[in-house]
């Protein structure tokens, strides 16, 4: 596999079950804004924390701690879904973490 370093994300445990998601190359944190958009933030804010949950199908979900009914979700096209349009049971909210190779 030829995976670009631009796609490497680092999950940092903030407290039990809560993570922040950092782009390794960009050195920015994933944030969910009040309108449900996903943005890159230079510093960690309360919009950068997500509840990480291992689902019964062995995929992970990431639900916003600040906007607790909204999930991080990607469409088949690679575009993100707005937080208010996400919910349990959607395939777009399922992620399969992989170990990064150096």
Automatic annotation (TrEMBL):
Entry-linked InterPro entries: Fibroblast_GF_fam, IL1/FGF
Presence of the UniProt keyword Zinc in the record: no
Superkingdom of the source species: Eukaryota
Keyword Zinc: no
Alphabetical keyword list: Growth factor
Entry GO MF terms: growth factor activity
Family affiliation: Belongs to the heparin-binding growth factors family.
Protein name: Fibroblast growth factor
Organism of derivation: Sus scrofa
Gene encoding the protein: FGF2
